[in-house]
């Protein structure tokens, strides 16, 4: 491929070090599509005759068929997917194959292939994110008016609707989908025609190439285009954040599934047992999902670090871009599918959730009742806090305090029973985005619309 100026052969370890075929082989389809388009460009630029073009394209399609049938035979001399395809093309159509690389470099070629691959990966990621969102929506619908303790600092705080708690994990995923959609326009920029670094010397119509390959625009600087991996960083950053979001969802559900909480039971299909303790049923699906965030963050850091300080245009360091990209996409697609399955098949125990509510979680509602008769909130907060302490000292629930304790705390507290109503407490929070059944119904309508097919 580049042996002309070399007299010695490559060191065996160096070959192993340099070859990227084991990683970039999966770009075969994109590589061949890019080459078919490039052949068309060379035809229109007058470099290829119609007959030559037709032979090249037929040969490339034959190579594609071999890959598709899994019958492509890689050779030890194949350095990367680009050289492998061209080598095979030569075997199939002879010396004419040598015309394909006219005016092109692997530098603009690999950037084109990787972007093409990333464009379809973005579609797959969007679908996988949506599938998890749909699972959350389905559970939120099934939850109806079930209520559970809401926590801050992992301490019981206020009662909330289960549907509200479930949808709290819907919106981060929605932002992830928006982020990936936004990144897409910067992925869909065609580098082909940039040559090795200075642009191709032949009159190739780059805009036509972009259109044929499904790119939205063409790059404007060949030095930048051949070494721009920002699109990978953006996708990896978005992927790392998806990982963080999934880890938080997983953590909530792992806590809920513990014996102490017992709010949710995972299906057997998404749990595993212990080899030692017969009674165990572990939430491994969610634990692994939580753990995968580590490698997703690592992939981002590894590409950013690789890029830092690189001189302009292509450097071989850039070959290190694909493994983290592929790993992030593979990891996320599997993780999202598993978590969606675990969410869809889980069963909630509404009674356990309700039993976990206690009157102290309505202490804010006591204060709010006082505010409604004109007591400044700070004072109301204090009064309610004293009642909580009194109940704690007597070892009773807040509502079990004698009525005169309430009226002594404030004369307006004549009907505490009306306050200790969980549904009234949630219904009071009837602002857009609040946990009131009305507000959650609106939220659910919006969520459902965003994941409709
Ligand atoms: N395998 C290389 C990569 O993935 C292709 C580009 C090689 N370019 C070069 N000038 N050696 O980056």
3D structure, described in words:
With 453 residues, this protein is mostly helical. The longest helix has 38 residues. It has 20 helices and six strands. It folds into two domains: 100 residues, Orthogonal Bundle (Fumarase C, Chain B, domain 1); 249 residues, Fumarase/aspartase (Central domain) (Fumarase C, Chain A, domain 2), CATH 1.20.200. It has a two-stranded antiparallel ribbon. A two-stranded parallel ribbon has the order 3-4. It binds arginine (ARG). The site of arginine (ARG) has 10 residues, from helix 6.
Fold topology:
Blueprint: H1 12-18, H2 21-24, H3 28-44, H4 50-68, H5 81-93, H6 106-143, E1 147-152, E2 155-161, H7 162-167, H8 170-187, E3 189-190, H9 206-213, E4 217-218, H10 222-227, H11 230-257, E5 264-265, H12 284-307, H13 322-345, E6 347-348, H14 350-355, H15 363-372, H16 377-394, H17 403-409, H18 416-419, H19 422-428, H20 437-451
Parallel strand pairs: 3-4
Antiparallel strand pairs: 1-2, 5-6
Helix pairs in contact: 3-4, 3-6, 3-9, 4-5, 6-8, 6-13, 6-20, 8-11, 11-12, 11-13, 12-13, 15-16
The structure holds arginine.
The site of arginine (ARG) has 10 residues, from helix 6.
């Amino acid at each position: 491929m580049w042996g002309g100026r070399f007299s010695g052969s490559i060191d065996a370890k160096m070959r192993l070090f340099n070859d990227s075929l084991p990683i970039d082989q999966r770009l075969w389809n994109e590589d061949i599509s890019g080459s078919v388009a490039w052949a068309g460009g060379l035809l229109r630029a007058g470099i290829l005759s119609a007959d030559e073009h037709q032979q090249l394209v037929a040969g490339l399609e034959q190579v594609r068929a071999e890959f598709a049938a899994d019958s492509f035979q890689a050779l030890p001399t194949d350095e990367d997917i680009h050289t492998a395809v061209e080598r095979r093309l030569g075997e199939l159509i002879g010396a004419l194959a040598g015309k394909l690389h006219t005016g092109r470099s692997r530098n603009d070629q690999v950037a084109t292939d990787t972007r093409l691959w990333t464009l379809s990966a973005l579609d797959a990621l969007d679908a996988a994110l949506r599938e998890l969102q749909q699972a959350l929506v389905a559970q939120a619908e099934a939850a109806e008016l079930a209520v559970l303790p809401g926590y801050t600092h992992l301490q019981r705080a206020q009662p909330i609707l289960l549907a509200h708690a479930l949808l709290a994990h819907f919106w981060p995923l929605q932002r992830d989908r928006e982020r990936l959609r936004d990144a897409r326009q910067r992925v869909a920029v065609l580098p082909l025609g940039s040559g090795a670094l200075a642009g191709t010397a032949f009159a190739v119509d780059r805009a036509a190439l972009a259109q044929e390959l499904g790119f939205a625009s063409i790059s404007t600087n060949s030095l930048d285009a051949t070494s721009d991996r920002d699109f990978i960083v953006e996708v990896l950053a978005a992927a790392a954040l998806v990982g963080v979001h999934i880890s938080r969802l997983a953590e909530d559900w792992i806590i809920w599934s513990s014996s102490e909480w017992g709010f949710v039971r995972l299906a057997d299909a998404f749990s595993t047992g212990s080899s030692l303790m017969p009674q165990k049923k572990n939430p491994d699906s969610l634990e692994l999902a939580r753990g995968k965030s580590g490698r997703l963050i690592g992939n981002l850091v590894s590409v950013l670090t690789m890029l830092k300080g690189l001189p302009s245009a292509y450097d071989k360091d850039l070959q290190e871009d694909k493994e983290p990209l592929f790993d992030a996409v593979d990891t996320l697609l599997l993780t999202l599918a598993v978590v969606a399955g675990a969410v869809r098949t889980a069963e909630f125990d509404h009674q356990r959730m309700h039993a976990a509510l206690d009157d102290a979680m309505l202490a804010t509602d006591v204060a709010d009742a006082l505010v409604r008769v004109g007591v400044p909130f700070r004072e109301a907060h204090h009064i309610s806090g004293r009642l909580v302490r009194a109940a704690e000292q007597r070892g009773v629930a807040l509502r079990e305090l004698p009525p005169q304790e309430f009226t002594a705390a404030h004369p307006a507290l004549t009907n505490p029973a009306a306050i200790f109503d969980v549904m009234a407490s949630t219904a009071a929070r009837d602002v857009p985005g609040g946990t009131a059944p009305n507000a959650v119904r609106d939220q659910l309508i919006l969520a459902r619309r965003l994941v409709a097919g």
